[in-house]
């Protein structure tokens, strides 16, 4: 993390690029953008020292709206791209953002292995239990009896994916759930996630007002988790499996060392490698 | 100058150590001042099963096996059967074989060659801890005329780790074998010469590609294991950390390609290596590198396809996907090494070009180039290294995809204040904001295409050689046998030109026109069933009226004699 000096602290607005979001009015992702800029400002991270990486989806548009470095890549591969960047440039603050389809369906394998690898970066998933960008199909986190998806008119009939449980089992070092209805609370959790070493997952319940208007009710249903974050994976697993997906706050904080190969050379010249081939 | 060469095949059943034996023989040949190549042939078993080391030595650099083999040594008769298709023999070839009991073993294939029984197993038994493959090493060294001393140092180097007893046993076996070899028919190997230390190298094409990558400046590699590219990765995994670089074993090829895009976005020249199946998985994201203008190099060590195909064998059939496999209009670079040692130069050049043009480069090596070990002249140290256009100072309004005097726009690196932008696979404006307008799309398509077509590639686009009105055009590992065929013809007074294309994309119409000046007939040589190279050349270039195609799928390698035969109609058979 690179902090600029306190006197030059930028306000949240200065972390916005000025490009107008394409999101529908009322989309939860607007608030997440606000939380993220507040967190960057709160941590006083210079925009040039942060990189926000995403795939494809409404939520994946995030980097364009920020004044940091950004990469809007292809669908599902944000975590892989972010991992390469972080390993090559450990000095940067790397944040990946995206949706539940991008992260848990097409990008599911990278999700597992990024948790397992545990690079020091933060992953913010705006979970709306639907594919917003492609106009309302079921996603891996959609409940089985949701019948509004045009490709699954009788519901998917299959159990939803449990991202936080999977993250825990795969080795993520920090797991939190937030609601976009609480912009400041979400900003605080994002700050903590960025500060925590290793791979931090922040699931933000972020309503898709267009294809899942009933999610507007989320703000009434979510509540802060009644207990402090645990660092015991077994305890965390029990809680995550039984909390109905509506408790917010930091739920797990682990102590695994982050993945970061050293980048210090032991020889001065590439030509020193020639020796092994010489007869 | 006509070449003096000897071709030797060494076969054995699983665990008999033929590969170690072959490598040691090759290195001993190198120490004696000879050039040489060794390829491996093995069954599908992961471990064990029959294996054969195919070795050729010469007084001149080698790039291809010969038309037939002079000498076969089979540690056991049954091991030879499965390789006979790859080991053509003549009447004057010799098979040395352990018939264990003196009677001709029924499993020994019927050939024209002369068979000689040598009880290698029995001889090894007489030495405490002795092994037949070390007897074989001594026998072969003697029969091809290597001095006994040339083996000693290599034995020590290779077997030191196995302890004094193992070393002693091997030394004793080699001695026994060497003595026994004196009783066998001798072959006249090339003259023994003294070569100064460091002037000759022993290297595989896969190692050479790895070396080229780091010479070019690559410091980040992410990859997923796949035959026959794995040795590139193994070499890089050991070498990159020495240079302050890193290799990440990724979860799949989708991750590999995206990790290297991320690392390169972060300013580190980056590469991944794979084979056909992996390249197929990567294509969407190679398009991302093209669109977002992030330099990356993808090395594809080709094998027989489609699908899993024949994973361990050579074919030149990924040309289509490398040239045309990206969706949309996605101009990028495609290169192919023209020889084993050229894997160094071409990979290094690819890094340089990708960085200079901020685009994706695909390098098409192949199993034959990659997994052959050769004794070569010390490769030249060529100064092409990564040099990206990174602005030193960033102006007030930095626009990442600006269309200025040069289509290669300055690229800031995260950490540079004022240089922030979002790299995007969405079509974008000059500033990098998403755009769906025709004008922006056209302008950026032009930018991405102009920077490649307008680049001055110089003379390296192809290796052009020879005179006359007949030309062979080929690429990749097919160049080796063609080059030898043409040098044989030259020795007999027939001149045929050769064009080995190193830069397959973008097309070089002017350069091709100049190269074809005065050429009346062209023979195309490629290892692909569907004539991929032929179709590519037809679409990209104007060829002379008379075009002949010599193509077949892998894994059967081209032989120099076959190329000469193909040319015989044109070059007068009396000369051949
Ligand atoms: C390889 C590929 N397949 C499919 C798509 C189409 N696609 C774009 S976004 C998307 C789903 C987005 O859903 P989610 O990640 O949940 O994000 P949201 O739009 O809901 O924020 C799909 C299927 C694509 N862009 N690329
Ligand atoms: S479709 Fe849904 S997720 Fe996409 S912008 Fe609209 S409300 Fe947001």
Can you describe what's shown?
The complex is a heterodimer of chains A (279) and B (576). Chain A is of the alpha/beta class. Chain A contains eight helices and eight strands, in the order αββαβααβαβαβαβαβ. In chain A, helix 1 packs across helix 6 and helix 4 packs across helix 5 (163-170). The relative contact order of chain A is 0.14. Chain B has helices at residues 18-31, 120-125, 132-144, 149-159, 164-181, 205-216, 230-239, 253-265, 276-292, 319-324, 342-357, 367-371, 438-453, 479-491, 509-515, 532-540, 560-571, and strands at 5-12, 35-42, 51-58, 69-74, 89-97, 114-117, 200-204, 220-223, 246-249, 270-274, 296-302, 333-335, 360-366, 373-377, 422-424, 462-465, 470-474, 497-501, 503-505, 521-526, 546-551. Chain B has four domains: 5-181, 3-Layer(aba) Sandwich (Pyruvate-ferredoxin Oxidoreductase, domain 3), CATH 3.40.920.10; 201-377, Rossmann fold; 389-455, no CATH class; 459-575, 3-Layer(aba) Sandwich (Rossmann fold), CATH 3.40.50. Chain B is an alpha/beta fold. In chain B, helix 6 (205-216) crosses helix 7, helix 6 packs parallel to helix 11 (342-357) and helix 8 (253-265) packs parallel to helix 9. The model of chain B has no long low-confidence stretch (mean pLDDT 94). In chain B, strands 6-5-4-1-3-2-14-7 form an eight-stranded mixed sheet. The two termini of chain B are 16 Å apart. Chain B is built from 17 helices and 21 strands. Classes of the chains: A alpha/beta (279), B alpha/beta (576). At the A-B interface, strand 2, helix 2 and helix 4 of A face helix 1, strand 7, helix 6, helix 8 and helix 9 of B. Strand 2 of chain A pairs parallel with strand 15 of chain B, so a sheet runs across the interface. Bound molecules: thiamine diphosphate and iron/sulfur cluster. Thiamine diphosphate binds at residues 56-59, 75, 98-102, 126, 128, 130-134, 139, 208 of chain A.
């Amino acid at each position: 993390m690179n902090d600029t000096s306190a006197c030059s602290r930028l306000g949240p607005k200065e972390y916005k690029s000025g490009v107008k979001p394409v999101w529908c009015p009322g989309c939860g992702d607007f608030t997440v953008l606000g939380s993220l800029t507040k967190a960057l400002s709160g941590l006083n991270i210079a925009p040039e020292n942060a990189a926000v990486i995403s795939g494809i989806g409404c939520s994946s548009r995030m980097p364009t709206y920020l004044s940091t470095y950004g990469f809007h890549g292809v669908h599902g591969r944000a975590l892989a791209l972010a991992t390469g960047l972080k390993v090559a440039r450990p000095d940067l603050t790397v944040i990946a953002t995206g949706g539940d389809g991008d992260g848990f369906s097409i990008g599911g394998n990278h999700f597992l292995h990024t948790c397992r690898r545990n690079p020091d970066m933060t992953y913010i998933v705006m979970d709306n239990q639907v594919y917003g960008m492609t106009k309302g199909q079921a996603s891996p986190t959609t409940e089985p009896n949701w019948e509004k998806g045009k490709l699954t008119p009788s519901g998917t009939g299959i159990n939803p994916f449990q991202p936080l449980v999977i993250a825990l089992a795969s080795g993520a070092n920090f797991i939190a759930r937030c609601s976009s209805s609480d912009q400041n609370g979400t900003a605080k959790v994002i700050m903590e996630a960025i500060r925590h070493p290793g791979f931090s997952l922040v699931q933000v319940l972020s309503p898709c007002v267009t294809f899942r208007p009933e999610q507007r009710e989320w703000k009434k249903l979510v509540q802060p988790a009644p207990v402090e974050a645990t660092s015991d994976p077994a305890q965390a697993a029990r809680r995550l499996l039984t909390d109905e997906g509506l408790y917010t706050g930091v739920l797990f904080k682990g102590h695994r060392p982050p993945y970061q190969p050293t980048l210090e050379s032991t020889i001065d010249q590439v030509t020193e490698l020639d020796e092994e081939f010489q007869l | 100058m006509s070449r003096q060469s000897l071709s030797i095949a060494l076969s054995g059943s699983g665990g008999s150590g033929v590969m170690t034996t072959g490598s040691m023989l090759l290195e001993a040949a190198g120490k004696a001042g000879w050039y040489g190549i060794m390829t491996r042939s093995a069954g599908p078993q992961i471990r064990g099963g029959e294996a054969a080391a195919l070795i050729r030595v010469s007084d001149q650099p080698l790039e291809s096996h010969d038309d037939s083999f002079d000498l076969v040594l089979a540690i056991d008769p049954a091991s030879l059967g499965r390789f006979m298709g790859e080991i053509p023999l003549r009447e004057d070839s010799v098979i040395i074989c352990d018939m264990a009991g003196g009677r001709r073993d029924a499993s020994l294939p019927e050939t024209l060659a002369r068979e000689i029984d040598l009880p290698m197993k029995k001889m090894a038994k007489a030495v405490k801890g002795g092994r037949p493959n070390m007897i074989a090493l001594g026998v072969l060294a003697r029969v091809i005329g290597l001095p006994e001393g040339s083996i000693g140092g290599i034995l020590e180097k290779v077997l030191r780790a196995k302890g004094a007893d193992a070393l002693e046993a091997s030394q004793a076996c080699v001695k026994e074998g060497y003595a026994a070899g004196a009783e066998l028919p001798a072959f006249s190997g090339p003259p023994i010469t003294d070569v100064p230390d460091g002037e000759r190298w022993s290297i595989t094409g896969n190692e050479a590609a790895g070396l080229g990558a780091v010479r070019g400046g690559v410091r980040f590699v992410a990859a997923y294991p796949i035959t026959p590219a794995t040795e590139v990765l193994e070499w890089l995994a050991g070498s990159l950390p020495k240079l302050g670089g890193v290799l990440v074993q990724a979860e799949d090829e989708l991750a590999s390609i995206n990790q290297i895009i991320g690392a390169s976005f972060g300013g580190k020249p980056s590469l991944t290596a794979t084979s056909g199946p992996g390249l197929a998985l990567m294509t969407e994201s190679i398009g991302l590198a093209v669109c977002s203008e992030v330099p990356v190099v993808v090395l594809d060590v080709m094998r027989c396809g489609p699908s899993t195909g024949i994973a361990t064998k050579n074919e030149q059939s990924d040309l289509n996907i490398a040239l045309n496999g990206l969706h949309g209009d996605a101009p990028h670079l495609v290169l192919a090494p023209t020889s084993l040692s050229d894997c160094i130069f071409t990979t290094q050049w690819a890094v340089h070009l990708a960085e200079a043009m901020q685009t994706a480069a695909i390098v098409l090596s192949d199993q034959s180039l990659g997994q052959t070990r050769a004794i070569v002249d010390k490769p030249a140290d060529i100064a092409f290294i990564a040099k990206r256009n990174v602005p030193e100072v960033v102006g007030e309004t930095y626009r990442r995809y600006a269309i200025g005097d040069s289509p290669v726009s300055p690229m800031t690196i995260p950490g540079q204040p004022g240089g922030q932008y979002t790299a995007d696979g969405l079509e974008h404006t000059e500033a990098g904001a998403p755009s769906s307008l025709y004008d922006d799309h056209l302008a950026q398509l032009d930018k991405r295409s102009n920077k490649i077509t307008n680049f001055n590639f110089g003379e390296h686009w192809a290796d052009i050689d020879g005179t006359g009105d007949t030309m062979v055009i080929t690429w990749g590992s097919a160049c080796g046998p063609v080059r030898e065929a043409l040098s044989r013809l030259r020795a007999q007074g027939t001149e045929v030109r050769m064009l080995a294309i190193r830069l397959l994309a973008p097309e070089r119409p002017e350069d091709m026109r100049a190269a074809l000046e005065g050429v009346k007939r062209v023979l195309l040589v490629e290892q692909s069933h569907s004539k991929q190279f032929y179709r590519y050349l037809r679409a990209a270039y104007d060829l002379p009226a008379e075009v002949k195609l010599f193509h077949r799928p892998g894994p059967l390698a081209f032989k120099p004699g076959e190329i000469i035969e193909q040319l015989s109609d044109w070059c007068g058979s009396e000369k051949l």
